[in-house]
């Protein structure tokens, strides 16, 4: 963790997230306004809500999800979804790994799936691979991170926030960070609702955070003695 962690420095690591299925364009517009006022790195919204209008002069990035939330899509479908998202203005793609392929040890399919998305979104688009860490063993977490790196990912990411097994854990983030070193980023997401939780993830090696209750989390970083748990019920 950096020597001096402030609410502003944490905000600069945040993907301010709205992935509730019932979200509307008006909700996204409100999300963007809040994101700009909080000074976060990006917003993350569903692909059907792209393109979005970012205020002129803002450096706010736009992320979206692919193969979400199950990951159980054909690689060609994920690639097509990715290509459309990039056309619609996405700077970053958060794709869900094929969990069935991971569980069956079909690492060729896992890599082919990720590589299909990478090919559809070449650099400078940033590719994050959601491995759904709470559903995996430690060995599977390591192997999924290694496959993501081989397939050209820029980040590995803990969770969708929608899986029944849960979201991010300090243990998973630490293991992921150890596996990828400084070669890839590590995004912690899913169930991070307090300033203390966010700081624990950063200390474990997270370089990006996926948050829905961002304002409350940042307030908890700034004012730890008055912090309350945040969250909008989306699982993020």
From TrEMBL:
Enzyme Commission number, as recorded: 4.1.2.4
Pfam families (alphabetical): DeoC
Subcellular location per the Swiss-Prot or TrEMBL entry: Cytoplasm
Enzyme class (EC, first level): lyase
Reaction equation(s) it catalyzes: 2-deoxy-D-ribose 5-phosphate = D-glyceraldehyde 3-phosphate + acetaldehyde
TM annotation in the entry: none
Keywords assigned: Cytoplasm, Lyase, Schiff base
CDD domains linked to this entry: DeoC
Protein name per its UniProtKB record: Deoxyribose-phosphate aldolase
Species whose genome carries this gene: Jonesia denitrificans (strain ATCC 14870 / DSM 20603 / BCRC 15368 / CIP 55.134 / JCM 11481 / NBRC 15587 / NCTC 10816 / Prevot 55134) (Listeria denitrificans)
């Amino acid at each position: 963790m950096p020597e001096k962690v402030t609410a502003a420095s944490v905000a600069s690591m945040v993907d301010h997230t709205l992935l509730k299925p019932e979200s509307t364009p008006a909700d996204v517009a409100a999300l963007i306004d809040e994101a700009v006022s909080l000074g976060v790195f990006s917003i993350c919204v569903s692909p059907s809500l792209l393109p979005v209008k970012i205020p002129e002069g803002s450096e706010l990035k736009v992320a979206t999800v692919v193969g979400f939330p199950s990951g159980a899509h054909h690689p060609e479908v994920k690639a097509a979804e990715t290509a459309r998202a990039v056309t619609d203005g996405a700077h970053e793609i958060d794709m869900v790994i094929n969990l069935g392929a991971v569980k069956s040890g079909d690492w060729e399919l896992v890599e082919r799936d990720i590589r299909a998305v990478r090919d559809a979104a070449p650099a400078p688009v940033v590719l994050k691979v959601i491995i759904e860490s709470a559903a995996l063993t430690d060995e599977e977490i390591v192997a999924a991170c290694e496959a993501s790196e081989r397939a050209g990912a820029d980040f590995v990411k803990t969770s969708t926030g929608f899986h029944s097994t849960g979201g991010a854990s300090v243990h998973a983030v630490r293991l992921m960070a150890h596996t990828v070193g400084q070669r890839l980023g590590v995004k912690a997401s899913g169930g991070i609702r307090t300033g203390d939780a966010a700081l624990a993830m950063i200390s474990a090696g997270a370089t990006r955070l996926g948050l829905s209750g961002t304002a409350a989390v940042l307030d908890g970083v700034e004012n730890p003695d008055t912090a309350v748990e945040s969250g909008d019920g989306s699982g993020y």
